[in-house]
Amino acid sequence: MRKHFWWFIGALLLFSVSVISWRPVSTLKSINTITKKLTAKEFFAQYVSDIYQTANLQQTGLDVNVFQKAVTGYMNLKLANKLPANSNVITVVDFTKSSREKRMWIIDMMNKSLVLNTWVAHGQGSGDDMPNHFSNNNDSHQSSLGFYLTDDVYIGKHGRSLRLDGLDGGVNSAARARGIVIHAANYVCQNTINQIGRLGRSFGCPAVSPEVSDQVINTIKGKTVLYINGNDGNYMSKLLDDTAAANFLAPVADTIQTDSASVAKL
Questions:
Q1: What is the pLDDT of residues 51-94, one digit of tens each?
Q2: Distances in whole angstroms, Cα of residue 138 to Cα of each of 195, 204, 227
Q3: pTM for this structure?
Q4: What percent of the chain has pLDDT over 70?
Q5: Fold of 57-253
């Protein structure tokens, strides 16, 4: 009788150890997954991709590389304390696209959403349908590329307008002196495209349709980032320093460890 009792106790202990040490296959897989700590640049790229996808920017024709340039400048301006804490809007203009396309985007970075995608004119001196010439010179009637900060609203010869300050020396730094502003223009509309095959052109201002001008001005006024992209191989800007922009997010990246399956969820 005693022999059977101790045999039963031994079997019970062996079964208990087996149950305690057992884990579901999925748990074992998660334990064995090699975790990877994202580098600052990897985290930055994922940050850009997340907003780009969530806001459905690809469907509206915004190139992801152009968007990443805009975000790079945005981050570097935040790093330099050039933006208010609540400045969460980026405006992107892509002059590599035809004037017939809606080539201005206003993106809410905080909510990862597209606020507006609309037409925008370029300067008469920059080209017809496609702008290929850019200048910082007065009376050139050409558009200027690069990064801008929006400023205050005023009533001028084009009605309600928004002042811009160019941030790239020698590229767009004369914007204020040239009177380069965002304003409404009747020639920015589908009817003009139908009549002449392209939008009308400005004297260098990124003019928008009267139908959306108030929305554009009200949304981006008061120290937000405007980035104008174009076909100019000579354009360079300190604000396109992707290392500095990525390192600005590094304190966040350092707190995150993830495996490859969960990177897309960031």
A1: 999 999 999 999 999 999 999 999 999 999 999 999 999 999 99
A2: 30, 10, 20
A3: 0.82
A4: 80
A5: L,D-transpeptidase catalytic domain-like (2.40.440)
> What average pLDDT does the segment 145-166 reach?
97
Domain regions of the chain by residue span: 57-253
